[in-house]
Design a protein that fits this description.
Layout: E1 3-7, H1 16-29, E2 33-38, E3 54-57, H2 61-72, E4 77-82, H3 88-97, E5 100-105, H4 109-121, E6 126-129, H5 136-150, E7 178-179, H6 181-197, E8 214-215, H7 235-245
Parallel strand pairs: 1-4, 1-5, 2-3, 2-4, 5-6
Antiparallel strand pairs: 7-8
The chain binds adenosine-5'-diphosphate and magnesium ion (MG).
Amino acid sequence: MAEIICIIGNKGGTGKTTLSHMLCQGMGLLGQRSVCVLTDTHREPLKPEGRRYLVADARTREALGKVVDKLRALPGWLGVIDGGGNRSEMDRKLYSLANLVLLPFRDSHEDMRTLISDLETFPRAWAIPSQWPTNPWQQEAAEKTLREHLGRHADRILQPVSALSASKLLLQKDIPAKLPTPLGNACRALAYQVLDMLEIACEAPADESEDEGEATGKNPSEAAAPSSAEAFDSPADTANRSSTRH
Ligand SMILES: Nc1ncnc2c1ncn2[C@@H]1O[C@H](COP(=O)(O)OP(=O)(O)O)[C@@H](O)[C@H]1O
Ligand SMILES: [Mg+2]
């Protein structure tokens, strides 16, 4: 059975879609097989070519049911469901079916207020700071705001995902053949944190330096990573392949 991770929260713009794709890309770079599941009816599916993960379109209730059933039948896979936002009923449904639930929030009072309410609604969920400042002064101010607003939930806050302009490349319909190294490193760090929470064994990622480059194609240390130039629409093939790859 696949592990299912949902990225939800009652507010738009917190980074749910970006984190879903970064997490899947990072899983792929760490040699894990993952599927990024789109549920947001305001977004179009992205092309799978060049990504380290598969993509699934689950914008209708029926399609979501099918994708989840398919994932359940795939041992060793990871499904990351991008919740879409502003849909309490959908968030509750995703929460109930997920093994791990993430609630992204930014360095803003409004995000933190919404987060507190979501943390109370979803007691198993973890908060993940997103688009976090990298400048030391801004970072210090953000951490102060976080302590003031979220102090009593401190044990449910994960390591932040930094603001990284290259992250938007993963949300392009077609992604460039070569992705910037800092993006790959951020994806790996996020995926490693999540795999650790799911108790999935994986070697700690070593950051690549700029000159090594971050190709989306294979490199020797990633030989086990899946080829992702396919959509998540062929259950029989996918299931067969997964059983032969272990
Ligand atoms: N880590 C990040 N660094 C920089 N920009 C980000 C990051 N995460 C998200 N963004 C930007 O913030 C905006 C909202 O992100 P998105 O993932 O679409 O949020 P949501 O899905 O929660 O509505 C987008 O413009 C996206 O490019
Ligand atoms: Mg979104």
